[in-house]
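JOB MANIFEST
job_type = single_chain_structure
chain_count = 1
residues = 104
[input]
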Amino acid sequence: MPVALSGAERHHQRRDWLAELIAIPARDDTAFEAGRSFLPALPPDRVHALLSARAERLERDSANREGFRGLLDSTQVPRLFWVEEEYRDAWRMVIRRSQRDPAW
């Protein structure tokens, strides 16, 4: 049986949901795109913190993938088997750059 939430509890849950959409990168960026449209619902300092957390995660993930790609290169795995991941990395780099410098 569903539990009824108070208005304050629903508001808190919405903010948590939005924070997760913004701060945690997902394989499919449509969640992030949706979350961006709700950014005015959060205080500016919270938005900055969430976007900074997202950028740090993306940088860390990118470094991990570069290491993995180096391993693939050293084992002579044909590029055919990892070209899709290479494409996703390039796309993520564009996203990170545009998030750091909106004028870009």
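[summary]
Residues 7-100 form one domain.
The chain has one domain: 7-100.
exit_status = 0
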